[in-house]
């Protein structure tokens, strides 16, 4: 007899700033839902409050080719990628079997290309100079929707099963999924505070199933993820650098000074992510009551002001940063003019950003 259960987990997400004279705490409490059934799988949702109902458009999937260079890169092989973009700044492993090729020195662009067995399986990209015709980073939601109508249900048929991704109203507004063809899907990440396109992710069907960014009703199998401790260490280190680079790209969009990497602060951030994961809690305060100020003081780190963002259960670094951008308190930390240094720490799927305004 098949058993079904629905678990609902409420997690308090808190963002606060610490001042030298007296710490101040500002909290935001958000509801995060987990749904697990035999035929329905649900990942933890990003942060957002938008509840906008939309009529269901017709399926627009086709084999249409788009002019933007990013679409052509998705169809390119390894040698063509190198010929077009050059050698990547670095190559970061992922839990999903592909390797991120990181391009962070391109003028006005930041691009991550997921390579597996010499082929592109996914791309995440942002930046005002990004070529994704017929749309552009910074375009309004309505303008993007003219070219890529959003749907609440996106279907995928593979030999190993049938899948239907089910998007909630807030997901359709914040990070809708578009079926470009049977072998290409695109996530559109929007900044819901400006109603503008923030970044895009193109992926093949297998990558979409690995990431599982929405509730999915399915018949068949979902891919399993297994990585060794050594592999996870490399994955986490790559995610930390990706968070740093994507955060800086977002600050450029708002004409803000970019962060300087701070290794000691990164170690503090990592220790908190690890502690949350191993002790099964999600908070800026450890079970013993210690907060960010205590953690920084223990490492004798000097600062004028500090802030912290945390996230959990996002499939990767890019999704976590876009989640922070769409949460008021986290956004304020990410775009704070006073913060000059950033340390990021990732343990498994727990993410921490520690921001500092350094003493002169």
Overall description:
Residues 248-355 form the SCP domain. Residues 77-214 form the CAP-associated domain. InterPro entries: CAP_assoc, CAP_dom, CAP_sf. It holds the Pfam family CAP_assoc_N. It is globular and about 55 Å long. It has ten helices and 18 strands. The longest helix is centred in the last third of the chain and has 25 residues, at 229-253. The model is unreliable at 1-63 (pLDDT under 50). The chain has 360 residues and is of the alpha+beta class. It has helices at residues 69-74, 78-85, 141-147, 169-174, 205-211, 229-253, 263-278, 292-298, 317-325, 328-334; strands at 8-14, 16-19, 27-33, 40-41, 90-93, 99-103, 110-116, 119-126, 153-158, 161-166, 177-181, 184-191, 196-203, 215-220, 260-261, 305-312, 341-347, 350-357. It has two domains: 69-220, CAP (Pathogenesis-related Protein p14a, 3-Layer(aba) Sandwich), CATH 3.40.33.10; 229-357, CAP (Pathogenesis-related Protein p14a). Helices cover 27% and strands 30% of the residues. The strands form four sheets. The chain has a seven-stranded antiparallel sheet with strand order 5-6-7-8-13-12-11. Strands 2-16-18-17-15 form a five-stranded mixed sheet. A four-stranded antiparallel sheet has the order 4-14-10-9, with no helix packed on it.
Key structural traits:
360 residues; Pathogenesis-related Protein p14a; 2 domains; 10 helices; CAP_dom; CAP_sf; CAP_assoc
